[in-house]
Amino acid sequence: MSLTLRTISREQHLAYIRSLPSASHMQVPAWADVKTEWGSENLGWFDAKGELVGAGLVLYRQLPKVKRYLAYLPEGPVINWYAPNLEEWLRPMLAHLKAKGAFSVKMGPPVVIRRWDAPAIKAGIQDPDVKRLRDVEATHIEPRAFEVADRLRRMGWQQGEDGGAGFGDVQPRYVFQVPLEGRTLDEVHKGFNQLWRRNIKKAEKAGVEVVQGGYDDLTTWQELYEVTAERDRFRPRPLVYFQRMWKALNAEDPNRMRLYLAKHEGEAVAAATMLIVGGHVWYSYGASANHKREVRPSNAMQWRMLQDAYALGASVYDLRGISDSLDDSDHLFGLIQFKVGTGGQAVEYLGEWDFPLNKLLHKALDIYMSRR
After folding, report:
1. CB of 105 within 8 A of CB of 97?
2. CATH number, domain at 14?
3. 17 and 55 in contact (C-beta within 8 Å)?
4. How many domains does the chain divide into?
5. Which residue, among 76, 35, 307, has the nearest Cα to 183 in the 3D structure?
6. Which of 103, 195, 205, 253 could make a disulfide contact with 358, Cβ separation 3.0–4.6 Å?
7. What is this structure's pTM?
8. Angstrom distance (rounded) from CA 351 to CA 355
9. For the segment 220-251, what is each residue's pLDDT rounded down to a tens digit?
10. Residue 309 is inside which H or E element, if any?
């Protein structure tokens, strides 16, 4: 296959994404409007007939004082990763980005390598000798993913360290997903563990009401999110980030981003954002109050979001990042414990990969990031 690569318009890029079953929400053109601190470019791959056969959103972050850039394709590009001629897809991309002044390229192939179902994870949690997800035998392994990794290494790509680069925008290698395709809603509900089903019923009895919010409700979201940030000790994003996200994504597609609020006695006590691209639906950000936790608003909200994802015809409901730690003394253990209750699967992606176009500047960036 003879491939050419060039800059394309946002309209061409969006039309291509819409022609696919799904793609990452970080590879839609509007994501560039969310990430205003980065420059951006829409890339397109064309076959010999001139048909658009791949696309990628590139984000550019400039180094201080010099016109050199880190080029980042989060969870992309959207190409045929299993193509035997993968080098012919990626070589022109590297040449193009180098000509644009990139000193290093970071990308996140949307390629799944392993899956673990809920019973396998639970067995791992109960085994005192098991500390990490990778110590548990996977329920499903994708052999082609190993071939992709081998091809990338042979081309000179380097596998990024988990959680260690990209100006703080590194994406999770492990996520948790609930498959919806080929299942009834009743089957999805029966897949929840006993505690989840009990908590959903408890919320219902207590009168928890889950509603869809709008742009004006983002201030309520922010209050709950900042309470959550203080409780869980992370630095929250400002309200303007979510307002920008709402405007940018919903201008591109009116159903790209949703906000859900779980209310008890008229008071919002939990909230979450949802993102939708084709058949892939993400639970993006979540927040909850410190009080009224006993009425289980978060369980009620997740169940409503899952039902709505199903009604949209989604093939997967994605609860996003988890740590691979199965050690109950780890501060991130609660995350996988909460999500495994949905009866879904832990999913490992290939992770992020770097290509140093200028080894000296790439090394300098690594040193800078490690000292932050």
Report:
1. yes
2. 3.40.630.30
3. yes
4. 2
5. 307
6. 103
7. 0.93
8. 14
9. 999 999 999 999 889 999 999 999 999 999 99
10. helix 297-311
